[in-house]
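Structure ticket #2291
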Amino acid sequence: MTPPPPVSDDQPRCIFVLDTNVLLYDPGALYVFDEHDVVIPMTVIEEIDRFKKDLNETGRNARTVSRYLDELRNRGSLRDGVELQHGGELRVDFAIDADLIPASWGGDTNDNRILRCAIQLARTHGDRVRLITRDTNMRLKCDALGVTAEDYEHSHVEVEEQYSGVVERTVSATFIDDLYQQGTAEAQEIGEFYPHQFVVLMAEDGSGKSAMVRVDGRKGRFRLVNRHKEGVWGIFARNKEQLFAMELLLDNNVKLVTLNGVAGTGKTLLALACGLKLVADDEAYRRLLVSRPIFPMGRDIGFLPGDLEEKLNPWMKPVFDNLELVVNTPRENGRGKSQRDPQYQYLLDQKIIVVEPLTYIRGRSIPRQFMIIDEAQNLTPHEVKTVLTRAGEDTKIVMTGDPYQIDNPYVDALSNGLTHVVERFKGAPIAGHVTLRKGERSQLAELAANLL
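Resolution: structure written out below.
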């Protein structure tokens, strides 16, 4: 969505026609177009009405849109237009001319009705009209019909430019020597950095001297990164990004840690190992709470039998696989042999680890817990806000995910909750982020992540 030009005496206001999927993604889209006009096709309201009874985030957004429109209705006529806060106007419109859409495009579908509304407005107001939709095919249809269409990018973050949490800088060899002797150094001598950002310092004289440091979140000084040679619950860092992630995960002063990267980079494994150390060994937290959104990859297999624990087991299998690796559970061989309880079962029985879905998190307060949100790229920015605002006193939240592996149809690599949090929290003194780049699961897994 190209930013609209500011309104002036010789520049008329733009008219933004909103598709249903925009409002289901962000109900606040009604108010983000400043002094420009917003048009809601009547078909969009009809579609919103069908979603309002859904017991999920989409249903909640549909109910929120209806409430917003009802509040505007109390201030004036939606048919004639209601003035918005920044000077624009919102109105509900519909098109009755069926000849605006070619007969070969199918019957009187909802998409065609929305297109008719946009075309009718475009014939009157020209290129001032823009249809805002998150549906790629809808934008293609608009292009064929000569109507300007754009994606809704109000919450988008450019992933290619996303904050990675790690930078490299060249310094004098003397600076590195002094750093090793004193353990700290003034970061401002090198440049401006974000709190808890990791910096790889290289000697500019070609001597090969180097140092890995972290920017102190409160004092703004460089501190040498702990090598963690003893490992954590038998898990050792295999590359510098994993070492940086371990540094953040084990620091109780960092209340929010975000880890992203391709499959097999060790995001969930490191989070579980460090969480177990802080909960079971150090007793810094009451328990380790692991949760993930419920989204299938591909076609869903339908309802699952059993109680809540049995229903959750297929969804939480990736978590259990990592737990099995952490505690080094031997595998059973042979057919027909009964499977004994996995060695991590005692962690579940003693409530050291609790595995829950995110479905029931609204309204809760979670104090003094180490909470891992796995596959966070499937959350919307609003859902992420709901999760983070559940954090009680002394709770640490770790969010992991891969922005390029998304199963939620309402978000993408630029608008998902994980990407949103990384960008918004990069300057916060209690938050840290690392992008893991090298796959360590296996040679095959790394090749698949890079080549496919």
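Closing remark: DSSP finds 14 helices and 17 strands in the chain.
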